Amino acid sequence: MRKLSELTRQELYDLVWSTPASKLAAEFGISDVALGKRCKKQNIPKPSLGYWAKHAAGANPPKKPLPPPPDEVFVQAAKKSVGMAIPLPAYTESAHLLATELIMKLPKARLDSNKRADLRLPTLPEVNVSKGLAERVAMAFHVILNGVESVGIFFRKSQSAYNGGYFVRRYDRLYLRIEETMVEPDGTTIRRASWSQSYGSHPSGRLCFTLKSEQYGAAVEKEWVETDKLSLEKVLAQIVKFIRNHFVEAHHRRVQAEIEAKQRHIEWERRHREWQAEEAVRLQKESEQKHLRALASAQQNRIDDLLKAAEWWRLSRSVLEFINECEQRWKTQTGELIAEQQGWLTWAKQYATTVSPFQAGYPDPTRDGAFDAGAVAFGGPYPTTRSFPLPPTMPKLPPLVA
């Protein structure tokens, strides 16, 4: 059976509704709980507790249809219209928990040089507004949260104590900053106070919203400033729409990246199979050449053994003739051999005998002659050889010095 991770959503749905979960989990080597988590993650419904009992009794209980995959549900929901404007709720209305936390924390935040509260908490967006705008900012945050959480985009706590929280879906993030714009004495609006601002500038009472894909070092994704022509209600609608579209586009990019990664993997597997086939051919040719070399070496070694054996035999005969000549000369000179002469003759004859190939049982026709190379199995075992040592008389020796 294929691995669980290799099954399509439809294939897993079909298996879940054709085989009890305990048996199916055992076939995949996992627990019922792990199988259930897999189905929940892919939004695959499972049979109820009494489904298989009814099935065993001969009934035909209905199957729950396979709903669209979670990502498709998200995209469909995120693309729904949010309208041109989203009104702020009444302050008496139950606010989102994070919006309530913002109302509580903002009045306690330290003030900057422009008398604006500067709030930086990992559970909330970065906020820099006058404390009198606390409820208005919190309700605006409430509207944004409700507009994106309903489709599966959530605001999460930052892992750093110095960064604000962020909207997230899967691995994509959007950091939110809410600040109050400043007004110069000439009526010019500036987004953020700086060292170059004019004396007499003051908070405008209007909000600016900034969304970034990264907290630091990234260009601003989008910025909205409340104006006479662009009300806060319209700004909030645009922000909710932007956040939704951002994560929809991120989803499409991720899907496209997965498709391209799969195509690269398929291409890699194809090239790997080609390489394996080429490598198999190369190794086969290498083995065949090695086999031929082993056969040729065995044949050559047998020829070499014949030549070396013949030379050892000739050397043995020459030594014996020399020994006999020495014995005859001594007998002619003294008539009788003395003990030293007799001992030398005995030693010399023993050595002459040992260098004879006959002493090693050579030749043996069954192991020292020609052989049928075609009868030798591929890869051996190969015919044995004697590997006689090279006789000292076979190399070309320098002439004897008189």
Describe what you observe in this structure.
- The protein has helices at residues 9-16, 21-28, 32-41, 51-56, 70-78, 97-105, 134-149, 232-334, 339-354, 365-368; strands at 117-119, 126-129, 154-156, 166-169, 172-183, 189-190, 202-212, 222-225.
- Strands 1, 2, 3, 4, 5, 6, 7 and 8 form an 8-stranded mixed beta sheet that branches.
- The mean pLDDT is 89.
- It folds into 3 domains: 4-67, no CATH class; 86-230, no CATH class; 275-375.
- Helix 2 crosses helix 3, helix 5 runs antiparallel to helix 8 (232-334) and helix 8 (232-334) packs antiparallel against helix 9.
- The protein is an alpha+beta fold.
Name the descriptors:
3 domains, 402 residues, alpha+beta
* Helical coverage, percent range: 40-55%
Given helix and strand content, the structural type is alpha+beta
Shape: elongated
* Major β-sheet annotation: 8 strands, mixed
Mean pLDDT: 89
The total beta strand count reads 8
Strand content: 5-15%
Q: What is the subunit organization of this protein?
A: single chain
Helix count, DSSP H or I runs of 4 or more residues: 10
Please write the string of helix (H) and strand (E) elements.
HHHHHHEEHEEEEEEHHH
How many domains would you count in the coordinates?
3
Radius of gyration: 48 Å
- End-to-end separation: 90 Å
**Unreliable residue stretches:** none
